[in-house]
Sequence to fold (257 residues):
Amino acid sequence: MIVKTTISSLWLAPAPDAEERLAAIFDTAPGGTEIFFRADDVAVPGDNCREMMKLFRKHQVPLHMAVTPAWLTKSRWTTLSKWSGNDDLFCWHQHGWRHVNHQKTGKKGEFGTDRTKAAKKADIAKGRAKLEAIMNDDFHPFFTPPWNRFDIETGEALTELGFKAVSRSDGEMKKVPLPGKLPDIFINVDLHTRTETNPVEGWNALLGEFEAAIKTGRIGVMLHHQRMNGAAFKFLDTCLLVATNRSDLQKVCFKSL
Ligand SMILES: [Zn+2]
Fold:
């Protein structure tokens, strides 16, 4: 498995006023604004994964864990399951199958147009069967695609396989509509895979995403724990504190869909 561990520029040059600015942005959120958090590329129980889970338990905020099936083993699950405690805060669900790119050109995708529907459906079914066999009742039938995107046939396959919702990124619904009533609980804030080389630009863009998300009525925050450093953990801690201090924000959990 290949997981990028590059730290985005903003986490290498933390803005001293970032936490204040974030709190001011949350103050503008109308009551009833929804918020949820989703962690991608989960399966291997390393130190960063444990720290991330600890923070969500400390603040008692739900976290949606997108697990790559090919990377999970029984012993890895035993550890993750132990770390999750008895709080029922973690919504374990499927993140592709092997997290590999099958597109010959253009943007990366495990479930894009360069494979047959049968091949894509078989991979999703294989991944789900593996997660169910290892996690039993802790598995929930939601699908987060690697790179936040898939093609129209994948949407059909997910419906046929009985998935209850998907989670992509903001804007995908316009590009690839979903069949039937399959909802997309999309993310619109990217904490750790930011590409701005200038940290000031990175901070402005990140905080701008929180502002724009609030205007839509739902903040969906994506995490990549392998790419977190101390500054990123500190900011996440503040973010969870600010969110929990606002009791009129709705902490969304896919499980209640
Ligand atoms: Zn991923």
Summary: The first helix runs from residue 9 to 12. The beta strands are 34-42, 63-67, 90-94, 139-143, 165-166, 189-190, 218-223, 250-251. Residues 66 and 92 are 6 Å apart (CA to CA). The chain is about 40% helix and 15% strand.
